[in-house]
Amino acid sequence: MYLKIYPDNPNPKEIKKAVDILREGGLVIYPTDTVYAIGCDAMNVRAVEKICRLKDLDPRKHNLSIICYDLSNISAYAKVTNTIFKLMRKNLPGPFTFILPTGSELPKIYKNRKEVGIRVPGNTIIHQLVGELGNPIMTTSVHDDDDVIEYTTDPELIYEKYASKVDAVIDGGYGSAVPSTVVNCTTDDYEIIRQGKGELKI
């Protein structure tokens, strides 16, 4: 399914179509404030396993990331100290992935590494998807190091490449080729481990 959704004014009917797919364990490609990403209901283990197979991710070796609606119930999904919470509040929504110790409510698949990436992108479409779903969305970029840039930024070309592998592609306009900045926050001595889009406010 190819869904055209305008980020300035997302059509609730189109958002609902994508959310229905997520609820049924489907995979959806959507825009973020950085690169286009593939996601599923983060609490649906079979769907998470599908993405891991598609992207060749081993949850025992790779950190998995989730997109949250906001920071209000973050403690359900990650363990966060006051220092790190203040840092996240200064920078989110925004193009950052914060690596934190895994919280109690995430399924076992996230606990292999004992860490989870937390994102709250500044993008209306994904924000509404997460809000309507009522669960976080497990997320991983469509970008690979050997990809031609157009195939990771142009939604029509992304659809061409992934139409047979996912259940829906949302066209929310051209995406960025620059990924999020990744910040390791497993201790209060946080550290930027990948500088991407966005300058961390301290």
What does this structure look like?
Helix 1 packs across helix 4. The chain has a single domain (about 1-195), classed as Alpha-Beta Complex (DHBP synthase). About 25% of the residues lie in helices and about 20% in strands. It is built from 6 helices and 10 strands. It has helices spanning about 10-25, 45-55, 80-90, 125-135, 150-155, 155-160; strands spanning about 1-5, 30, 35-40, 65, 95-100, 115-120, 135-140, 170, 180-185, 190-195. It starts with a strand and ends in an 8-residue tail after the last strand. The protein has about 200 residues and is of the alpha/beta class. The protein has a 10-stranded mixed β-sheet with strand order 1-8-2-3-7-4-6-5-9-10, sandwiched between helices.
